[in-house]
Design a protein that fits this description.
By secondary structure, the chain is α+β, with helices and mostly antiparallel strands. It has 2 helices and 11 strands.
Length: 191
Amino acid sequence: VHPVALSWRETRVTEHGAGEHGHAPGLFPVPGDGVLARHGDLILLCSLEVSQTADDLLDLLEQIAAAHGDGRQFADAIADALDADESAPSVLAFGPAGPGLAVTVSGGAWADITTAEGTVRVEASHPRMLLRCALRSPASGVRGGLSPDDNGAASTDRFSRLDAGTVRAGGLSFYQAGTDGPAVGEAGASA
C-alpha cells in the first residue's frame, strides 16, 4: 500500500495482484453487439440476432443459478435449449464442473481456455454447430467471443469488471485469482 496525498485529503492505493496473465482476477467484457451475463460462477455470452432466444437463455441462467446448479448442469441446459432452437445464435456458456470447467459453444462463438498445461481453443466453426465439452483440469482463464473475426487480443478495460448482472458485450476475458489458484468456481462470486 502506497500513501498518496491529494489536496487536503489523504488516501491509499492498493496494488491489485495480477496473475501470470498480467490482469487482475475477474470477468471483463469486451465491447460488442451481444450480451454478457454472470450469476455466481455461471457465465453466458450470447449474440442478439433473435432477442427471444437471448431472453430464454438469460432465464435459463437465472433458473440454474437459483437451483444452485453447477457448470455442467448449466452448459447442458443451454445446449439443450439451443438444440431445440432454429435460430442458431452464437453462444458461449461455461461454469465450474468438479475440478474443471463445462463449456457449451455454438454458432461462430469460440473460447480459449488456459490451464497449467497450456491453452486450448474450443470453437464452433460452422453456424449450425453446437459443441459441449468438459475440461477436467482447473482453468486459470477463459477468453472468448461471438465471432471468429473477433479472435484477436481481447480489448478489456480493467475498470469494467462484471461481478454479477448483465451488460452488452461481444466477448469476454475471465481471469482466475493466482497462477496456482483455485479452479473456476472455487473463488466464489467475488472472482
